[in-house]
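so my prof wants the structure for this chain in the tokens format not the other one, which i didnt know existed until like an hour ago. anyway here's the sequence
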Amino acid sequence: MSWLWRLSAQRSQEFDAAAGAYDRYRPRYPIELFDDIIYLGELKPGATAIEIRAGTGIATGSLIGHGLRVVAIDTSPAMLSIAREKFGTNARFVEGRFEDCLPTESTDL
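here's what i got, hopefully its the right format
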């Protein structure tokens, strides 16, 4: 395993250990950011988005709120656990690296 992947695995463990604090203290993104994403991407309700490194779902909620179907990918089980708790079946959560998760369907974002 290259040093870069080892560092990535180490960072994932660090985020995993601090998942609760991350969710509590991480600043939220302005809603206008998602308005722009939807507008510029010409996305309609029901469009599918892949969210890479979804963490605790800070962006997931805004994507869902804009009517998107979200596939949220993250390597941290604790982070995804918080996201699942918040959003339940309103998103599909995948534990793993994006590089290892080949989409089985087309996506819009």
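also thought this was worth mentioning. The chain has five helices and three strands.
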